[in-house]
TrEMBL record:
It comes from Actinomadura keratinilytica. InterPro entries: Formyl_trans_C, Formyl_transf_N, Formyl_transf_N_sf, Formyl_transferase-like_C_sf. It comes from the Bacteria. Residues 1-170 form the Formyl transferase N-terminal domain. This is Methionyl-tRNA formyltransferase. Residues 206-306 form the Formyl transferase C-terminal domain. Gene3D superfamilies: 3.40.50.12230.
Length: 315
């Protein structure tokens, strides 16, 4: 097949690598210009550079909405478009152009977690599995029939970084299997159950702010979901921002006001957490390692030298 690829960052890079290793002919690559957005500077292997290394023509676009792009697509005469981590809507006149349509690769177990940052949202929400789905594109974002889907389990200490590496390693095999199925003439793919669909927005720095009225279990997952190199979960202590790098749920049950720097437990310091803490019904969050705004990383017991005071959502 003649294949055009739309993609960006490491997800797109892995997809293009799989296409280049296949028996199919990559005739054009469309990718985004580099961005200074915090989340787009992470996992930023260059799709454009990989295409150029293999002599594949490249177009840089923020949105696929100009006539020059349409002309180049028609000249490429694709049998299939393959997309992964394309950041804007692809209109019907593009995704229906190829003979076999457009295959999209999405890093969630669709129909759940359509949209953006699915691994981070899934980890925050305590999902037991994450994964990757290859589906045919239609008018609704991430809603087309499923061609191939694979899952990996989420362990009790897994970070978003761990899950990124496990899911990105699925891209190559999934792309290869999906291409084989499409090239064979298969079209009887699995419709999504739209009653189970959910759609999530892009992450921003605001989404990393800790709310101490959350249960400690939820905050602990937020910390793991905002692992390096993602912007870390953060709070304020004595007016200064502090990033929480490692935390766990306390063994003991502690009562009081959420956010109170309370007591040492094990290798960390317990922060009172949860709306039920005032009734003495909540476990606290044991902060074990922090990073200050100047980049200094240190054990929480060294940072919180005395007990008392409060962690807050604002300075």
């Amino acid at each position: 097949m003649r294949v055009v690829m739309f993609g960006y960052q490491t997800w797109g890079h892995r997809t293009l690598q799989a296409l280049l290793e296949s028996e199919h002919d990559v005739v054009l690559v469309v990718t985004h210009p580099k961005s200074d957005h915090a989340y787009e500077k992470i996992w930023d292997d260059s799709v454009a550079d990989l295409a150029a290394e293999h002599g594949v023509p490249v177009l840089l676009r923020n949105r696929p909405d100009d006539e020059e792009l349409m002309t180049r697509l028609k000249e490429a005469d694709p049998d299939l478009i393959v997309a992964n981590n394309w950041r804007t809507w692809i209109p019907p006149r593009i995704f229906t152009l190829p003979r076999h349509g457009t295959l999209n690769i999405h890093d969630s177990l669709l129909p759940a977690y359509a949209g953006f940052s699915p691994i981070i949202w899934a980890l925050i929400n305590g999902e037991k599995e994450v994964g990757v789905t290859a589906h045919m594109m239609n008018e609704e974002l991430d809603a087309g029939d499923i061609v191939v889907q694979r899952a990996v389990p989420v362990g009790p200490t897994d970070t978003a970084t761990d899950l990124f590496h496990r899911t990105v390693d699925l891209i190559g095999p999934i792309v290869a299997e999906a291409l084989d199925l499409i090239a064979s003439g298969r079209t009887d793919f699995t419709p999504q159950d739209r009653s189970k669909a959910s759609f999530f927005h892009k992450r921003s720095i605001e989404d990393s702010r800790i709310d101490w009225t959350w249960p400690a279990e939820d905050i602990e997952r937020l910390v793991r979901a905002q692992s390096d190199p993602y912007p870390n979960a953060f709070t304020y202590y004595k007016g200064e921002r502090v990033r929480v790098l490692k935390a766990s749920v306390s063994k003991g049950v502690y009562g009081g006001t959420p956010g109170r720097v309370f007591i040492r437990e094990g290798d960390g310091v317990v922060i009172v957490a949860g709306a039920e803490a005032r009734r003495g019904r909540s476990h606290g969050l044991v902060i074990e390692r922090v990073r200050t705004d100047d980049g200094t990383e240190l054990p929480a017991a060294e940072y919180f030298r005395t007990m008392g005071g409060y962690l807050t959502a604002q300075p």
